[in-house]
Amino acid sequence: MGYVPQHALDNLKKYSYKGVDKSLVSRYVLQPFWNWFVTLWPTWIAPNTITLTGLSLVLINFGTLIYYDPKFLTEKGGADGPPHWVYFTWAAGLFLYQTLDAIDGKQARRTGMAGPLGEMFDHGCDALNTTLEVILCARALNLGRSWWTVASQIATLANFYLTTWEEYHTGQLFLGIFSGPVEGILSIVLLYTVTGFTGPEFWDRDFLAFTRLDRYPIVVQYVPKLGLNDAFMVFGGFVLAFNIVNSYYNVYKSRVSSGQGPFIPLLFLLPFPISVAMEVFWLSSPSFKESQILHSALFVPFLCAWGLQFAHQVSRIILAHVTKQPFPYWDSMWIWSIVGAIDANLPRLINRPPLIQNTLPRTALFVYVTLAVAFLSYARFCYLVINDITNYLGIACFTVRKRDRAGEWVGASEVNIKKL
């Protein structure tokens, strides 16, 4: 047992998945489709294989961005963008990702493989998808390398962190009437589809003129001029505010009903804004006239490194949830970000040049090393946790098999799952 303590592994026996989905779209439209779609998969295919297949589709989408629009990584705002048909593949890939993400749990119940490893694996893939979709969505909305894209990253990660924090303190996953995994993903699928027909320049149109609200003087007087893409971001901000209130309401009810203090969980929200503050402080460094990272080819690698660090952070929360361990308020990857942020801001702090990031090439080296360290750290976490859980429970991660009493691998159909 190399990563998870023995007493925590023993708590895996107490794990049981609980979820609430209040989405009308999910209940009346998607659930019937998912129930049919899962029957197309043979029972010898492991649920985690389905989950990983969904993430692979998103990685392919990200690969098409790099291949067809490399200037998005090297020039401000990109060039003309990828061919319009690429956006349709992004829409299809994301919709299939959502579908596969929804049926992996159903496949787990079909094969007798439902358990804590599946939840860990599912949330880990979702955490990686979050940042990848931010980058793809920024390209489709023609946001380019801007603070709007940074705001999109913060809002999207905040929603995911809230859901994870809420599940830790309530013991169940809540999906409200408008949730990221359902309506949020469908909104982005629609966005990709529209961009496929119109091109990303469509989203630069004036919001008031497009909606004809500019005909009303009172609207023009009080509503600032925004593009459609900016308005989309503002709408996302309102959704985030609603989710914050709703998530805390669920936590409040759960804590009160169990006789616990309802305000203590608020302290465990602090790790997220602290981590965000470090990344924003790093991005806003005054080393050059424009930030070395925000307006350079380093922006996308920086976001990817940030996303991997976030995936590590929330995966540790889910691990604490399924093993009933204390909330992980500290993450070791913060040390690296603190060093990067302070070094880049030495001109602001003590009026001297950065020690490491004093030229663009050296900044590039530091950002790519950060990306590599974040990737290796998260990969190590995944390997060790999967290894500990599969060894303890006597299961395989990508095979529908369990160990019998003699320690031999057997097919799921050949063993009484409930007795193991």
UniProtKB/TrEMBL annotation:
Annotated family: Belongs to the CDP-alcohol phosphatidyltransferase class-I family.
Annotated membrane topology: Multi-pass membrane protein
GO molecular function: diacylglycerol cholinephosphotransferase activity
GO cellular component terms listed in the entry, alphabetical order: endomembrane system; membrane
Membrane-spanning parts: 44-68, 173-194, 231-251, 263-281, 293-312, 333-350, 365-386
Pfam families, A to Z: CDP-OH_P_transf (PF01066)
EC numbers on record: 2.7.8.2
Top-level taxon: Eukaryota
InterPro entries: CDP-OH_P_trans, CDP-OH_PTrfase_TM_dom, CDP_ALCOHOL_P_TRANSF_CS, CHOPT
Cofactor: Mg(2+)
Primary subcellular site in the record, as a coarse category: membrane
Pathway where it operates: Phospholipid metabolism; phosphatidylcholine biosynthesis; phosphatidylcholine from phosphocholine: step 2/2
Name the record gives this protein: diacylglycerol cholinephosphotransferase
Keyword terms, alphabetized: Membrane, Transferase, Transmembrane, Transmembrane helix
UniProt catalytic activity: CDP-N,N-dimethylethanolamine + a 1,2-diacyl-sn-glycerol = a 1,2-diacyl-sn-glycero-3-phospho-N,N-dimethylethanolamine + CMP + H(+)
Localization per record: Endomembrane system
